[in-house]
Amino acid sequence: MRYNRQIVLPQVDISGQESLLNAHAIIIGVGGLGNAAATSLCASGIGKITLIDFDTVDSTNLPRQTLFAESDVGNNKVDVAQTKLYQLNQQCEVVAVKQALNASHATLFEQADVVLDCSDNASARDLVNTLCFQTSTPLVSGAAIRFEGQLFVAIPGTSQCYGCLRTFFAAPELSCVEAGIFSPIVSIIGTYQALLASQVIMNKGEIPLNTLITFDGLSHQWQRWKLPNNTACEVCRTHP
């Protein structure tokens, strides 16, 4: 009965809810995007979440990272998030990995049904993309800065990868620290990542492959940008 309002949706039904229950999602980065994505997935009834982040809670995180409170400042983000998510849903197994992402995490990726990239730098995103395609694990990538957000879904063997998208733009010159970020934007993008990940898990609805989705929080416009074929990609090479 807890998930009745989801189960009554014909696109979800009992089979979709069971798919969520049996699924394992990895979230890379427990910042603003990771907070929103983890909260939504946990509340929706996913069976297992693995959180990977080495950072600790800072007071400047609190406006965006809604799992954390003032009393959590100085504590490791994954430990705090694990506790808060258990309070939200004790049936969801939450694993805390207090490390920066590295190549050895490929074994974790092999055990997952989907990876959500909520990191905040280009090198981490490139590594996540590579590991996902090495292990054939679907990837849902999100990013946010200022009043802008973007989303990208990649399914190894079916679509192009995040590396194909990266060939069209350089790493941003400014991080969120210098450029700023408005709190609701990360919540919107992170929750949207949870929606896309749930669709991938349940295999329901339209999954926007080979497509960059962008959001402008000031004009309230969503746009889609189709990705050209890239036969030279060293990571995926999926499109002839």
Topology readout:
Blueprint: H1 4-7, H2 13-21, E1 24-28, H3 32-44, E2 48-52, H4 77-88, E3 93-97, H5 106-110, E4 114-117, H6 122-135, E5 139-145, E6 148-154, H7 162-166, H8 176-179, H9 183-202, E7 211-216, E8 221-226
Parallel strand pairs: 1-2, 1-4, 2-3, 4-5
Antiparallel strand pairs: 5-6, 6-7, 7-8
Key attributes of the depicted protein:
240 residues, alpha/beta, 9 helices, 8 strands, globular
Structure description:
The chain is α/β, with parallel strands linked by helices. Helix content is 36%, strand content 19%. The protein contains nine helices and eight strands. Helix 3 packs across helix 9. The longest helix has 20 residues, at 183-202. The protein is globular, with a radius of gyration of 17 Å. The termini are far apart.
Number of helices: 9
Average per-residue pLDDT, rounded, comes to 93
Strand content: 15-25%
Category by helix and strand content = alpha/beta
What is the quaternary state of this protein? single chain
Helix content: 25-40%
Q: Low-confidence segments, ≥5 residues, pLDDT <50? A: none
Strand neighbour order, sheet with most strands:
3-2-1-4-5-6-7-8
Could you give the count of β-strands?
8
Tell me the series of helices and strands, N- to C-terminal. HHEHEHEHEHEEHHHEE
> Largest sheet, if any?
8 strands, mixed
Distance between the termini: 47 Å
Radius of gyration: 17 Å
User: Could you say which overall geometry the principal axes of the C-alpha atoms support?
Assistant: globular
